[in-house]
Amino acid sequence: MHRFRLLLLLTVSPGLALAQASASRVHELDEVVISAPSAADTLRVVPHSVSVITTEDIERSPSRSVAEVLGREANLNIQSYFGRDKGATVDMRGFGATAVSNVLVLVDGVRLNASDLSGADLSSVALSQVERIEVLRGGGAVRYGDGAVGGIIHVLTRRPRSGPLKGEFEARTASYDTQELRFSASGGAGPLSGRIDVGRLDGNGYRDNDEQRRRDTAAELRITPDGALSFMDVLLRVSRHTDEYKLPGPVSRERFLSGSAALRRSSTASPLDGGSTDDRKFGTLWRFDLGDFGLVEFQTDHRTRDNPYLIGVNPAQPLSDQQYTIESTRRDVQLRYDLDYSAFGRIHSFGAGFVTQSSDYLRRDVGRTVIDQSRLRTGDLNGQAWYAETVFRATDALRLNAGWRSDDTKSRTEAATYRRTCQFQNVFIPGLGFIPVEIPGSCVTGFESDSRYASSTKSHAAELGVSWQPVKALVAFASVSRNFRTPNIDELALASSDLRAQRGRTIEAGVRLQPDDRLSLGLTLFRLRNQDEIYFDSTGVPSVNRNYDLPTQRTGVELETRWQPSAAWLFAANAGYVQPRFKGSDADIPLVPRWTANARAEWLQTPSLRWIAAARHAGRRFDGNDLDNRSFAELPSYTVFDLALRLDLGGGAQLAAGINNVFDKVYSTIAFSETYYPMPERNGYASLRWRF
Question: What is the pLDDT of residues 76-99, one digit of tens each?
Answer without folding.
Answer: 999 999 998 898 999 999 999 999
